[in-house]
Structure formats: C-alpha cells, structure tokens
Specification:
22% strand; 27% helix; Glucose Oxidase, domain 1; 308 residues; globular; alpha/beta
C-alpha cells in the first residue's frame, strides 16, 4: 500500500464537493481553518455549483474532481461534505496522474467511495477524517487530528471497554468506512480484498432493519469471515419502525460476527459525531482488545512508500 507524501506547512489543500451541494459559509470556514493551520487553501468556483441536491451535474462534479486529481501542486483533496453522489462519478475518473503523484483524499461518509476505490484499485492510502461541514460542532482534537495526520502524525487510540467487545489481538490494513457505502460497493472493483484486514464501520440515520440487511449482505458475501478484526465507530441517530427491531445497531453488528473469533472493538471515536478523530485508511494497524478496553495503533510508514 502506497503512502502519499505527507504535507509540509505552506502546501496546497484543495476543497472538493463531489456529492451534495454546499454553502459559501462552509467553504469559507474550511479556507480559514486550513490557513490557520499553516497551509494554503484552494476553493474553485465549481464547488458552489448546484443541480438539485448535488454540487453540480455528474459531469461538472467529475470534471472538477479530475482537475484536482491531476493538479501537480495540490497535495491533499479535502471534501467539504458527504451526502450522496460520489458513486455516480467514480467510474468516470482517470487516476493516471494520481498514480504517478499520489495525494491524500480526505473525508468520510459518502467519501468512503473514493477511499475504498483508491485502496482497491490503486493501492493508495487515504485519510478518514472530519469534513468542513462538521468543523463548527467538532471537538478541537478532531480538527487537530486531521492536520496532524496530513503531516504524518497519527495518535494511538485507547478506547474504553464496551460490553459487546470481544478480546483478542490482530494486525492488518484498515478498510471500510460508512456501512451504507461499504454495502453499496460490494462486488464492484472498488471493494478491496478483505483477507486479513481490519474492517471499520460507522453510519448515521439508518433504519435498524437496514443495518441488519447490510450486515447480512456482508456475511453472505464472505466479507465477515475473511477479515481479522472489526472496529465499530459511531452508529448515530438510528431509526426504528413502529414495531421495533428489538436490538440497537451495535447489537445487530455483534450478532452477525458472533460466529467468528477475531477481536471486536466498539466505541471507536470516529463517525458522525462531535469526536471524529482522523486515521489512515489502508494503513497496517494493530488492534488489541482486553478487559481494560481497546488499543488501536497505526504502524509507521515513510511518506510515498510502503507501510513499515
């Protein structure tokens, strides 16, 4: 797995809107935050386009993202928000220049599309992190972790015990992201080979029966039996029907991996919540779960090289 070059102060971070439309205030907040951390920000006029719920037509969003991928001076692409729309343009993008000069694609939620794709097809790491649409309510350490990670500094995660945890230790590359997107990309070329990998899942605003449906699909596709560990972040603002499903999202997930023996960590501080700490997708990591809680550490990698 390749590591794009880490950023130095003064490097250029471009803003992208590959999914839902965004407001000027979100982009302005992003620009001021990027500059406050010592980097240069690029917000092209295209990020303010609107077409129904999208930030422009598919063609407009594709063309803009392509220019950011190809631009030689851009070191990271920070997506302004998620929503829906990335999957509509992923197959139209050309990653030739990206492969010659990899750069960080940063975000989460709908941006899982790009993160899984560059991992599966182009063997490149990416950054799972908060986006500018979330900056106003995000914790200080959430925003700090984004810019730290872009410079090659990722924290060790010490997570409190959870009653659904399963003890054990494993190491492997981390993949996954938003459960709905992981489910959506099953059987596509954008889905990484899960053998021996640690799966991370989070989601928001889903019906509980749909969480169950997606976990059943991952099990039937053989994904859940091939991974070496499972990390679960925020399962936020879940919905239920008038006749309740009978379990919350975490319990549903635990049920579907109950037949396996790999470590299981709940309560990871990432997802649609105020604390959404940055970590590297595709990076080889170690997960240890014991009675004191969970410990998650990402291995060191030299910039633009293989994980050590």
């Amino acid at each position: 797995m390749r590591t794009p070059p880490y950023l130095q102060k003064g490097d250029l971070i471009a803003l992208a809107a590959p999914a839902r439309a965004i407001s000027h205030s979100i982009a302005e907040r992003a620009e001021s935050t990027i500059c406050r951390y010592g980097f240069e920000a690029l917000a092209d006029p295209e990020v303010f386009l609107e077409h129904n719920q999208f930030a422009g037509t598919d063609e407009q969003r594709k063309d803009h993202f392509q220019r950011l991928l190809d631009h030689p001076d851009i070191k990271a692409i920070l997506c302004l928000r998620g929503g829906y729309g990335s999957v509509r343009i992923i197959d139209e993008l050309n990653f030739d220049q990206f492969n010659q000069h990899p750069k960080w694609i940063a975000g989460f939620s709908d941006i899982t599309v790009f993160q899984l794709h560059v991992m599966a097809v182009h063997q490149s790491e990416s950054l799972h992190c908060a986006m500018p649409v979330n900056f106003e309510e995000a914790t200080n350490d959430t925003v700090q972790s984004l810019f730290d990670a872009l410079q090659g500094k990722t924290p060790d995660f010490n997570i409190k015990p959870h009653p659904l945890n399963r003890r054990g230790e494993t190491s492997g590359p981390v993949f996954g992201g938003n459960l709905s997107i992981v489910y959506n990309l099953l059987s596509s070329n954008s889905f990484p080979n899960p053998d021996g990998m640690i799966l991370f899942l989070e989601d928001v605003d889903e019906y509980l029966y749909h969480v169950d449906r997606m976990m059943v699909a991952l099990k039937r596709a053989g994904v859940l039996e091939r991974i070496s560990g499972l990390v679960v972040g925020g399962m936020t603002d879940m919905r239920d029907n008038n006749i309740g499903f009978g379990k919350n999202a975490e319990a549903i997930i635990a049920e579907h991996v109950s037949g396996f023996d790999y470590p299981l960590c709940f309560g990871f501080p990432a997802g649609h919540q105020k604390q959404n700490l940055a970590f590297l997708m595709g990076r080889t990591s170690t997960l240890e779960v014991n009675k004191e809680g969970s410990y998650f550490v990402q291995h060191h990698a030299d910039s633009y090289g293989s994980t050590q």
